[in-house]
């Protein structure tokens, strides 16, 4: 599938790192490094603008290495870039560590996964089809 992209940054286009990768790394596009204090949130620009076909979204997810090694994650994860959005892809980062964390230009800060979705029409009813699980919620299946 071809997707139109504008890259205003000086970095290469996002790409899959391996043949089995679901996501492509997004890079920070910064004039100077950004330091996130503990629990601070900030939108980090990427310089990327995309035009997805209808029925697709771009899911923006944390990078596992940044999360475990440095405590950097995304405020709303996964974030969604809708098919009709044409603005710059911005990454809402948060520092969950106890130490200030520096983000540099070109650093890989998030993953982008392109996924298909369906829109639905609601069908109001009085009852729902029964299932084995029923209304069992969190922890309903036991602890083993």
UniProtKB/TrEMBL annotation:
Cofactors (names): Mg(2+)
**Presence of the UniProt keyword Transport in the record:** no
Q: Which GO terms describe its biological process?
A: dUMP biosynthetic process; dUTP catabolic process
**By its UniProt entry, which InterPro entries does this protein fall under?**
dUTPase (IPR008181), dUTPase-like (IPR029054), dUTPase-like_sf (IPR036157), dUTPase_trimeric (IPR033704)
Q: In which pathway does it act?
A: Pyrimidine metabolism; dUMP biosynthesis; dUMP from dCTP (dUTP route): step 2/2
Keyword list (alphabetical) reads:
Hydrolase, Magnesium, Metal-binding, Nucleotide metabolism
Q: What is this protein called?
A: Deoxyuridine 5'-triphosphate nucleotidohydrolase
